[in-house]
Amino acid sequence: MKWYWNTRKGTVWIVPRQDLGSIRYHVVYDDEALGSYHSPQQAADDVAGGHTFGPSNGVDLGSLGISNNIADWQHTN
After folding, report:
1. What is the pTM of this model?
2. H or E element at residue 48
3. Is 73 exposed, middle or buried, given 0-12, 13-18 or 19+ CB atoms closer than 10 A?
4. Domain segments of the chain: what residues?
5. Which of 11, 34, 67, 75 fits 53 for a cystine, CB–CB 3.0-4.6 Å?
6. Phi then psi for 70, rounded to 5 degrees?
């Protein structure tokens, strides 16, 4: 399952990826990976607080009103 949050500056994704034998959840924005997390909830917390790596376009994800609760995010398979 992948989660996404649409903002006025584009869509932020949390996507699972296999990393060295375990599943990690990567924050992706504007085709850039901005961090890897043990759980989608941990990723949502960091995105909402602006605590990921900064995207090269300079957008502050913490200023976009993104929920820190993964249950509020939309999801797709």
Report:
1. 0.93
2. helix 40-49
3. buried
4. 2-76
5. 34
6. -60, -25
